[in-house]
Specification:
16 helices, 384 residues, Dna Ligase, domain 1, two-stranded antiparallel ribbon, 47% helix
């Protein structure tokens, strides 16, 4: 009886093997003739028999899986569009010369369960990559992006111009959101936003930096990124230092924006800051030309040259006619200017002007009006 049972088991096993071989032959015949048979790519999975058949098929072509389509190692840009099927992707790879057999690629990714993991996006592939390597590379797509760089010291209108010039975001839309529309956005509860006056814009708080955006990014997306960066870069240590000097974040940013426009040299920012802090403590006018320029700026000439008469104009932002800080920031300050505003140097200076004897942006500082007038007599020609 035991012997009979073994014979029956052997016969059944042989029958299964023969059936599998026949299935493989039929499968391969369908493959070489271009027919997909009953196996459908792109479905959630394969039945056990189908997986076994494809496995045997791939075994017979294992050497081809390790052979690249060519010897040119130059990167080839390849795009997988959203909704593309594996059949379309495989055909595209073959047309691009990245694989030599679209059918083999399809069977491989199907068997390995990689078909559902292929992502839409932009890829850099090479002819020297094998089918296995290409299938793995397609598992992580890089979506096309756009970059925008905003420099320190630009006023809001200039920021909008730079954004429009470097991205697909319209100038007017960016400016609308940054001036009034931001109040309708679902923004995080940043403390500095609550300090902006009711009619105030985001001037000064759109952090100057380089940003990477998706191709379909809107003004809202970029502005949120800029505000997030401001909140992160202006640390609690900086805010506490500013608070020790009697400044909240809004006032800190306002003063930093003036320093940004006044300072040329890094080593002078904290000294210039000390002049303004000393003047604020003494109840003096700040007397900063960039605040007048901001009030007079217009498209094409955002930072105009000034005359002595301009300093007498009654402008809301003029720190020659209005004591204390101006109503708000006049540009987007960088981190160095913000740190200088929060941590001024300890000096007795109340005055400064451009050093005419050095062509490096240096200033002449003075503690008394007499010293300042002497510096002005020496270097004041041409200055307002």
């Amino acid at each position: 009886m035991k012997r009979a049972g073994r014979i029956l088991a052997f016969v059944a096993a042989m029958a299964a093997v023969l059936a599998a071989i026949g299935g493989v032959v039929a499968f391969m015949a369908g493959s070489f003739s271009g027919e997909a048979g009953s196996i459908t790519l792109g479905l959630c999975g394969l039945s056990a028999p189908d997986k076994a058949l494809i496995g045997l098929y791939l075994e017979t072509r294992s050497e081809e899986l390790e052979l690249p389509a060519g010897t040119d190692d130059t990167p080839v840009a390849f795009v997988v569009e959203p909704g593309e099927t594996v059949v379309e992707i495989a055909d595209g790879l073959q047309e691009a010369g990245l694989i030599s057999d679209a059918e083999l690629f399809r069977r491989y990714v199907q068997h390995e369960g990689l078909d559902s993991g292929i992502e839409a996006g932009h890829f850099e592939l090479r002819q020297t990559m094998t089918i296995r390597e290409i299938a793995q590379a397609l598992q992580s797509g890089r979506r096309q992006s756009q970059m925008v760089t905003i420099r320190e010291g630009l006023r809001l209108e200039q920021v909008a111009e730079e954004v429009a010039a470097q991205t697909g975001i319209a100038h007017d839309e960016f400016l609308r959101v940054a001036t009034t529309g931001w109040r309708q956005l679902q923004l995080p509860a940043y403390d500095f936003l609550a300090q902006i006056p009711v009619d105030g814009s985001l001037e000064g708080f759109l952090w100057p930096d380089t940003y990477e955006l998706t191709m379909d990014a809107a003004a809202d997306d970029l502005i949120l990124l800029m505000l997030n960066t401001f909140d992160r870069r202006v640390t609690q240590d900086i805010r506490m230092a500013a608070n020790d000097s009697g400044l909240d974040v809004y006032q800190l940013t306002t003063l930093a924006s003036i320093i940004e426009r006044e300072a040329v040299r890094d080593d002078e920012r904290s000294v210039i800051s000390s002049v303004f802090h000393n003047r604020l403590s003494a109840g003096w006018f700040l007397g900063s030309c960039p605040t007048v320029q901001y009030g007079l700026g217009e498209p094409g000439t955002w930072w105009p040259s000034l005359t002595l008469d301009d300093l007498d104009l009654d402008l809301p932002y003029s720190t020659y006619r209005n004591p204390g800080l101006p109503p708000g920031p006049i540009c987007s300050p960088g981190l160095a200017a913000i740190e200088a505003a929060a941590r001024p140097a300890q000096t007795g200076y109340y005055f400064f002007l451009v050093d005419c004897e050095r062509d490096d942006g240096s200033h002449l500082f003075a503690a008394t009006e007499a010293e300042h007038l002497a510096n002005y007599d020496r270097c004041g020609s041409g200055l307002p």
